[in-house]
């Protein structure tokens, strides 16, 4: 009889979640299991390591401070690296590189603070990409 076998208790660690992390420009999402109390920064680190281990393109690098994690169902703001992944109540996330900032020009005037190509949020980039693909066919 299988009734005598009980699942191990999770204890204070909380529930485990299967999440999907989509990397902009990559073929498909990365899926892995995390603890709902895991910090967003640790989830970004795990996603980058999984992405590299699978040999996916484009090559992203491994510095988790260069990336932002978004929850598409929660709006266009990036998640704080110090909040828990379970606080959003979501299972699908989007990983994006942080926009690069340009250096100050020699004459003392500030250059554009964000590269034009990288400005805006991930939704704007995604919509622009769709429009380019549609118009090129």
Automatic annotation (TrEMBL):
InterPro entries: At4g22758-like, DUF7054
Domain (DUF7054) ranges: 14-96
Taxonomic superkingdom: Eukaryota
PANTHER family the record matches: BNAC05G50380D PROTEIN, OS02G0324700 PROTEIN
UniProt name for this protein: DUF7054 domain-containing protein
